[in-house]
Amino acid sequence: MQDDDRDSAGAGLHGVDRLWMPQGWQQRSGQGRWMLPGVPNLHSHAFQRAMAGLAERQTDPADSFWTWRETMYRMAARFDPESLHAVAAQLYVEMLEAGYTTVCEFHYLHHAPDGKPYADPGAMSQALIAAARDTGIRMTLLPVLYMTGGFDGRPLTERQQRFGHDVDAYLRLSEHLRSQESEILRVGCALHSLRAVPADAIAQIVAALPPETRMHIHIAEQIGEVQDCIAIRGARPVEWLLGNVAVDSRWTLVHATHLTPEETQGIARSGATVALCPTTEANLGDGLFPLRDYLDAGGAWGVGSDSQISVSPVEELRWLEYGQRLATRHRNIAVRAQSRSVGETLLHDAVACGAQATGFAPNDDRIVLDDAAPQFAGMREHDAVDRWIFSGNRNLVRDVVVAGRRVVADGRHVERDAIAERYRSAMRALLSD
Ligand SMILES: [Zn+2]
């Protein structure tokens, strides 16, 4: 697979170059089928699975992320632990069937709709943990700290109340959840965004959590957020974060869409991972990440399904590349010194950077592709990944094994029907008026 000698000058030994996997990361299984490492999903809000397709009517010619957020808040207000469990389980079945084997769940729906904590303050987190356990997906649970409604420190609005914690309550929740860590559960920390967490709270949280804790944050997704950050903190969001917090390979920056060249270089140098969510970023009209510059800088990145308008690593990777082609009017953008295959480069990076973003040690989770599919007819070995990613929408994942357990067999999750039935009844209740 390392069939050329393209010069990688400028890409230092940080970021993804440090993580390049040994040859043989794509292999044949005992039956001669193509076996690939499972793909980590670096960014998910499970409840949003219930609103996929429900925000696609124009309410105003200026519809944007901010009008989408209104729909999202209305849907968020309807959830309780039981419905979250049912929706998340359906989502995780879909993820596993598509080839995601780990999910980083960026979870901010903490309290009852009126903003009061449940009798068990971790009830909503427990619902997500139960959904992961039901389906066998590996989970990095990222309870979100959400404190303010804007960079100016304004209080949360009524609809944001159920997201909120102060630092002490957050640390209690985190400690309680960490006591449940297992072979397939890790607990990290998510800061919702710079607009939702004051600077002194970030410092307190970083100091209080165990040093190996994975830190995730939404950043620079919207131009409006960049402008507010400049106006109030005197710097762009990524510039501020890199200048004020010790960002390193334990950090994952979600979106990081709007960057200056210096910020692009700075993230790559820090060793942090960027979680790109191309289908959601397209759906929300966010903008386009400077992928080529970031690859040239040796930056680490992975993908996430975020708002769940698509649950497919194939579609995320394909659209990551297609966005760049549309913007530059060139083809075959995402390649590195190690491979000229776009599919192989994309899949490699999404997998190799995943382990550091999830906090799990490298594992043997794997997906087996359906070699009997017409898309693979007559295939040469070095085309396997490109065929998988760039040959249409038929799901070519046949089997999935997580932590030694086969959870998808012959293209179907082993609990698909029972989980879909619970999901249908939860959806009928959620959408009942
Ligand atoms: Zn998000």
Strand content: 15-25%
List cofactors, ions and other ligands: zinc ion
What percent of residues adopt helix (DSSP H or I)? 25-40%
Q: Report, as a whole number of angstroms, the end-to-end distance.
A: 55 Å
How confident overall, as mean pLDDT?
92
Structural class designation: alpha/beta
DSSP summary, beta strand count: 15
Largest sheet, in brief, is: 9 strands, parallel
Rg is 21 Å
Basic shape? globular
**Number of contiguous helices:** 16
Q: Poorly predicted ranges (pLDDT <50, ≥5 residues)?
A: 1-14
Structural topology:
Blueprint: H1 15-18, E1 27-28, E2 34-37, E3 39-44, H2 65-76, H3 81-98, E4 100-107, H4 123-135, E5 138-145, H5 167-178, E6 185-187, E7 189-191, H6 199-208, E8 215-219, H7 223-233, H8 237-244, E9 251-255, H9 261-270, E10 273-276, H10 278-283, H11 291-296, E11 300-303, H12 313-328, H13 342-352, H14 354-358, E12 366-369, H15 384-389, E13 397-402, E14 405-409, E15 412-413, H16 416-430
Parallel strand pairs: 3-4, 4-5, 5-6, 5-7, 7-8, 8-9, 9-10, 10-11
Antiparallel strand pairs: 1-2, 2-12, 12-13, 13-14, 14-15
The chain binds zinc ion (ZN).
Zinc ion binds at residues 43, 45, 106, 218, 254, 306.
Question: Would you write up a description of this structure?
Answer:
The protein is an alpha/beta fold and 433 residues long. The chain contains 16 helices and 15 strands. Strands 3, 4, 5, 6, 7, 8, 9, 10 and 11 form a 9-stranded parallel beta sheet that branches. Strands 1-2-12-13-14-15 form a 6-stranded antiparallel beta sheet, with helices on one face. Helix 3 runs parallel beside helix 4 (123-135). It is globular and about 60 Å long. The protein binds zinc ion (ZN). Zinc ion binds at residues 43, 45, 106, 218, 254, 306.
